[in-house]
Amino acid sequence: QVKSENKKSIWNTEEVPEGSEFDDTWDPREKPEYEILFKQHVGTEDVFFGMTGKDPSTACCEDIVIKIKLPETKYSDITLDIQDKVLDLRTPKKKLLLHLPYPVNSKEGRARFLSEEEVLEVTLRVSRKFNFIN
């Protein structure tokens, strides 16, 4: 059983799942199609010699790329909020709350809207503790 720091608290902060403040079950907007890709920066020492120990797994990737299909949407209608583990996207017709697979550096991300394809492409830098691979 978890002890609360404050006797008047109803629950402890560890009991509340991260990102739950973004959940809105009553919102009627539909969820857009999206795709999560992982990017890895490799050089000749990785490809030919295997000197750095990187492999094709997501554990060695530096960036997460999220492609979100937003048909019939203008760039000015998109609201995007990035937290360390949550991506929150809202448009007049669509809403996406995505819990990210890895913590990201929300200050170093970038997004671009490809109007011909009607796709929002969000690139986020993975925030990792250094280990023997990274």
TrEMBL record:
InterPro entries tied to this protein: DNAAF6 (IPR026697), PIH1D1/2/3_CS-like (IPR041442)
Residues covered by region (Disordered): 1-28
Similarity comment text for this entry: Belongs to the PIH1 family.
GO BP, one annotated term: axonemal dynein complex assembly
GO MF, one example: dynein intermediate chain binding
GO CC aspect terms: cytoplasm
Residue stretches making up the PIH1D1/2/3 CS-like domain: 31-126
Annotated protein name in UniProt: PIHD3 protein
PANTHER family xrefs: DYNEIN AXONEMAL ASSEMBLY FACTOR 6 (PTHR21083:SF0), TWISTER (PTHR21083)
Sequence ranges of Acidic residues compositional bias: 15-25
Lineage: Eukaryota, Metazoa, Chordata, Craniata, Vertebrata
One family name in Pfam for this protein: PIH1_CS
